[in-house]
Structures are given as C-alpha cells and as structure tokens.
TrEMBL record:
Region of interest (Disordered), ranges: 1-21
Pfam families: Acetyltransf_7
InterPro entries found in the cross-reference section: Acyl_CoA_acyltransferase (IPR016181), Bact_Acetyltransf (IPR050832), GNAT_dom (IPR000182)
Keyword Transferase: yes
Key words, A-Z: Acyltransferase, Transferase
Protein name as catalogued: GNAT family N-acetyltransferase
Domain N-acetyltransferase: 6-147
Species of the source: Streptomyces vinaceusdrappus
Tree of life domain: Bacteria
Amino acid sequence: MTSEQPTAPHATPHVGGADDDLEKRLDDELTAFNTAAADGARTEPLTVRVTDEAGTLIGGLTGWTWATLACVDMLWVHENRRHDGWGSRLMRAAEEEAARRGCTDITVSTYTFQAPGFYPKLGYRERGRIEGVPGGHEDVHFHKRLAPGTTGKVLGA
C-alpha cells in the first residue's frame, strides 16, 4: 500500500504553458488555505519604485507581507545605476514598510550569478542553497530579523 491517493476516474492532466485562469484559481485557493492556517492573516503586496525626474524607471522591488513575515520576490536596478546605492535604498525602504506593517522577519533569494554578496552587507544571513539552477548555479536564500516599528532613512535620503 502506498500513501499516494488513487487517481480520480476520467481525470486527465493537461500540460501546457502560461495559464492565467489556472494561476488565478490556484492563488485564490492557496491564499484561502494559508489565511485559515495563519489565523486569518492575509498577504498584502509590497512594492517600491524609483524613477528619475523624467519618469524613467531606475529600479524597483516587489514582494509581500503576511502577518509577521515579509518576502522580497524581485529586486532590479537599471544597469547604469547599479553602483549608486539604489539597491540598498530599495531594500531599506521595503524593510521599513514591512516593519511598519508589523513584520519581524524578511526573506529574499538570489541566484549565485546575481547578487549573493549584496544581502549580507545589509544584515541578511544565508539560510540555504538549492542546486540545479541552469549554468551550474545555485539559488541562495537569506533571512533577516526586523525590529518592529523600525524607522530610519527613507528612499532618496
């Protein structure tokens, strides 16, 4: 006997590419499941955007907060502005907003060909690596404890 459930009769998996309807449904279902498991805590989007005077995007960050946890999904700075400190300012702005929302922890991951040396400089500790990224690279996971209600420098300061 195995722990695998028997396949429902007349059910067929359909494999394909992008499926917006499926993605929305799964997001709705998992959000409801996770909210119930976390005593009603809901995820909220978190974004930080930097534009110049002309409105051109310099960089940005996307992520989410969920009760006491925040996560950065994507961080990008325009190639011509990568050594101007914008990455640090984007991360600090996200941390400040996460703390304002009551978060005590924040996570982020990066590939070894991206920025694994960047996050420790901001106080993040490496928590694990996953092999198997194309090109022989790894996915590096970081974590940082936040002080609730943290205030400090804001973007552009």
